[in-house]
Amino acid sequence: MTGAASGIGRAAALRLADSGWSVAAVDISDTGLDSLAECSPNIRPFVCDITDPPAVAEAVKRISDEIGSPRRLVHSAGIAKVGQLLDQDPADTLRLMNVIYGGTLHLIHAVVPVMASRSGGQIILLGSIAGWVPVPQGGGYGAAKAAVHLLAETLSVECREQGIQVLCVCPPAVETPMLDRMRRDAPAMFGPRPGLTTDAVLDSMDRALARGRLWAFPGRGTHAMWTARRMAPRLVSRIIARTIVRH
């Protein structure tokens, strides 16, 4: 479980622990992890920077030694930076790609061989509808999530014979501390609209896992937006751009 100190990752860790899973809660710092671990004896905290491949490999080894080989990876760790793309330092945009896509890649390289050696498992990656539907002021974040989507689709094919199920969950805005920061940085992107609850995201994830799906689109209208974007991409992009300008 990555990104476990807050938001979707924390909610997922608590849900799994309450269901009797032994949960390895991973985040870049111990802020939030200690209080999470106090919520359940089934949760063990592990500090790890997912952009550091040796650190990721070492963390997976420690988890395997102390808890057991991973059977389910829920990868929720990520960062966000919003604003006009050309107003941002390219280094900041590339950092989004390094954390969101690069971190996913490092985890996959560390976890999949372990799962494959133990007859399979489940890989759940947190994508975003922003990676399917381009949003003004969200170009860097959306591009990184789009890369995760393609990685998930490729991985689902390449790992099928190894007994590994892949699911990519693509929610809209979710009420998390990260969304609070995004609202402060770019209030026009969200306006007064509330985000989806973490429970709604996890419910969608559970249903998709049970049905053997590759994609989950939590929230009312999210799947319709994805479908519309595929069928009429220019029209959907114009509508979204106008909506954001009005706000």
TrEMBL record:
GO MF annotation list:
oxidoreductase activity
What's the domain of life for this entry?
Bacteria
CDD domains, per this entry? SDR_c
Q: Which InterPro entries match?
A: NAD(P)-bd_dom_sf, Sc_DH/Rdtase_CS, SDR_fam
Q: Does the keyword Oxidoreductase apply?
A: yes
Keyword set includes Ribonucleoprotein: no
**Any GO CC annotation of this UniProt entry:** membrane
Q: What UniProt keywords are attached to this protein's entry?
A: Oxidoreductase
PANTHER family, per the entry: DEHYDROGENASE/REDUCTASE SDR FAMILY MEMBER 7B (PTHR44196), DEHYDROGENASE_REDUCTASE SDR FAMILY MEMBER 7B (PTHR44196:SF1)
The record's comment on protein family reads: Belongs to the short-chain dehydrogenases/reductases (SDR) family.
Q: What is this protein called?
A: SDR family oxidoreductase
* Origin species: Streptomyces himalayensis subsp. himalayensis
